[in-house]
Specification:
single chain; about 425 residues; alpha/beta; Aspartate Aminotransferase, domain 1; Aspartate Aminotransferase, domain 2; 2 domains; seven-stranded mixed beta sheet; four-stranded antiparallel beta sheet; 14 helices; about 40% helix; globular; disordered N terminus
């Protein structure tokens, strides 16, 4: 028998991100209760993937236990239940992003899949030799490689907006790079490697003055900042479910309906068709034109539950709490001998990337793991960022609303131990 996950009410959330309220929220996440190497888990790898609340786990289990069926095609009771739950999740995503229409919400496998969809559908159909795609120097590989592939195929050129020593975009250079040859701007909203929050409204406005569409990689923004795609006025927005306390293998592409209508399907197969003969296929309407085959039904429904959970807490409240945590953690780490923070932008989300003098990031991560502290160590799928700052890798602690000042104190204590080991 499934015990439903505790629902967070507005009343419970008045103090749910401070003191005992935060501890109540932590109890919603079973994985946080465990010990690692005999020590309480301190989970600071949220930029890679977040932990899942019990309500999401229960929602997925309930689907497989009592609703499991394929969507859209069936006329029986279970198929109807599954379809209602699946399309209900689409409505939740549309409301979460404040998109105009449900048909503007495409279910994908994640941010990478969403960006590839735009690159291969929009890019391949629009790009010609000599055209340009504009990205930034702080992009994740998933917002670099797909564009390289399409540019190579079409004879187009990839241009890169430079960043300064703090890890901020140089907007004067961005404006200079925009030209009649620019066919799309594709930039990250929040850097996974630096934590920089980019001035995306200004980026979009400058591009739109020239009639250039803009894609935002919102993978790191969606769990931490309130997103309104109408207010941002972006043309595409991509994010992943697993960073938003939802299931892995789920993601969303928001696209303006008028643009999506003009784009050819990304993949062919079931559900993306209206009619098929050996001579011709008529494609389905939006959003199904871009959703070939049986989707990750349980994942989409679980993502809907995760969105409900986060919205009951409130993203503005989450952002304020995490900002306080970031400031506290920055102070703690700055006092550690030999430590240098990589990424010191004035506008930052909860990411603390750093190097310890003379110690490889992997050694830092390994020693911290034995102290029960989980961080990420490596290039974070952002090798050009590492090259820009002259380091092979960084150690990265990344925050979520279930983290506490005590977690950051445990991190600092572990880093002092790292220094002692290599003294």
């Amino acid at each position: 028998m499934i015990t439903p996950g505790r629902q967070v009410t507005e009343e419970a959330c008045q103090d749910c991100l401070v003191g005992s309220g935060n501890e109540r929220l932590r109890q919603d996440f079973p994985a946080l209760r465990q010990k690692v190497h005999g020590k309480p888990l301190v989970y600071l790898d949220n930029a890679a993937t977040s932990q899942k609340p019990q309500v999401v786990i229960d929602t997925i289990a309930r689907y497989y236990l009592s609703e499991n069926s394929n969507v859209h095609r069936g006329v029986h009771f279970l198929s109807d239940l599954a379809t209602q739950a699946y399309e209900g999740a689409r409505i939740r995503v549309r409301q979460f992003l404040n998109a105009t229409h449900d048909r503007e919400i495409i279910f994908t496998r994640g941010t990478t899949d969403s960006i590839n969809l735009v690159a291969h559908s929009f890019g391949r159909s629009r790009l010609r030799a000599g055209d340009e795609i504009l990205i930034s120097a702080m992009e994740h590989h998933s917002n670099i490689v797909p564009w390289q592939m399409v540019c190579e195929e079409k004879g187009a050129r990839l241009r890169v907006i430079p960043i300064n020593d703090a890890g901020e975009l140089i907007l004067e250079e961005y404006e200079r790079l925009l030209s009649d040859r620019t066919k799309l701007v594709s930039v990250v909203y929040v850097s996974n490697a630096l934590g920089t929050i980019n001035p995306v409204r200004q980026i979009i406005a400058l591009a739109h003055r020239r009639g250039i569409p803009v894609l935002l990689d919102g993978a790191q923004a969606a769990p931490h900042l309130r997103v309104d795609v109408q207010e941002l006025d972006c043309d595409f927005y991509a994010f992943s479910g697993h960073k938003l306390f939802g299931p892995t293998g789920t993601g969303i592409l928001y696209g303006r309906a008028d643009l999506l209508e003009t784009m050819p399907p990304y993949q062919g197969g079931g559900d993306m068709i209206s009619a098929v003969t050996f001579e011709k296929t008529i494609y389905n309407s939006l959003p199904y034109k871009f959703e070939a085959g049986t989707p990750h039904i349980a994942g989409a429904i679980g993502l809907g539950a995760a969105i409900d959970y986060v919205q009951r807490i409130g993203l503005d409240r989450i952002a304020a709490y995490e900002h306080d945590l970031l400031a506290y953690g920055t102070g703690l780490l700055s006092a550690i001998p030999g430590l240098r923070i990589i990424g010191t932008a004035r506008e930052k989300a909860g990411v603390l990337s750093f190097v310890l003098e003379g110690i490889h990031a992997h050694d830092v991560g390994t020693i911290l793991d034995h102290e029960g502290v989980a961080i990420r160590a490596g290039h974070h799928c952002a090798m050009p960022v590492m090259k820009r700052f002259g380091v092979p890798a960084t150690a990265r602690a990344s925050l979520a609303f279930y983290n506490t000042r005590e977690d950051l104190e445990a991190l600092a204590k572990g880093l002092h131990k790292v220094n002692e080991v290599f003294a």
